[in-house]
Amino acid sequence: MKTARIISATVMAAAALTACGSDDDDDHNAAPSSWIRQQYSAATTGSGYVDSADRIPAVAKEIDGNTSARDRISAADVELLRYRDDIVAVTPLAAGGSRIEIDDYRTGYNRWQTRIGSVWPDPASSAFRGGGPGEGK
Question: Has residue 125 been placed in a domain?
Fold first, then answer.
């Protein structure tokens, strides 16, 4: 009987700890920076990384397939992938292919604000929940 109580208490404690875990959306949505560095070549001009063969939608789909973005904005000349603390932009290369650039959320938001509009939260507002533990929450 004593063993049953110990097992029962252990199971209940494990369930309670699991229920108190952090929000997966906040903790597990970092931009796949390491994967991007491994998958694509460093740009020889400008910044970021390049895929000299694939077009914007295919590259954005590859990145999103590796690590799902919180949200995505698509246009003819850019794909923006929103992650917890970063924005990944996929734009065309003049010679064909795509350029991939990773900005922290605030920099990316300011850079792409004309495309983002009011779709994503302004990092200066109280609605923004990025930036890591305890910030903006």
Answer: no
